[in-house]
């Protein structure tokens, strides 16, 4: 019961967190890191082969 209540409160808080500009900026940073990592991996594979 306590766990379910905590999940509900967390789920209720999520939309407000997602809609904040700082959260959007965080996603942009994460996306940039993922893209950079993917490109570096591709270059490393091309250089190694």
Characterization of the model:
The protein is mainly α and 49 residues long. The protein has a domain at 21-49. 92% of the residues lie in helices and 0% in strands. It is built from 2 helices and no strands. It has helices at residues 2-18, 21-48. It is elongated, with a radius of gyration of 18 Å.
Work out the helix count: 2
Report the sheet with the most strands, covering strand number, pairing sense and barrel closure: none
Q: Strand share of the residues?
A: under 5%
Estimated structural class: mainly alpha
- Tell me the distance between the termini: 56 Å
Low-confidence stretches: none
What oligomerization state is this entry in? single chain
Mean pLDDT: 78
Any idea what the radius of gyration is? 18 Å
Map the helices and strands.
Layout: H1 2-18, H2 21-48
Quick overview:
The chain is built from two helices and no strands.
Descriptive terms for the model:
49 residues, mainly alpha, 2 helices, elongated
């Amino acid at each position: 019961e306590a766990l379910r209540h905590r999940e509900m409160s967390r789920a209720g808080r999520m939309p407000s967190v997602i809609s904040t500009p700082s959260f959007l900026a965080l996603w942009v940073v994460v996306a940039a890191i993922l893209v950079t990592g993917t490109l570096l991996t591709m270059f490393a594979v091309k250089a190694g082969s």
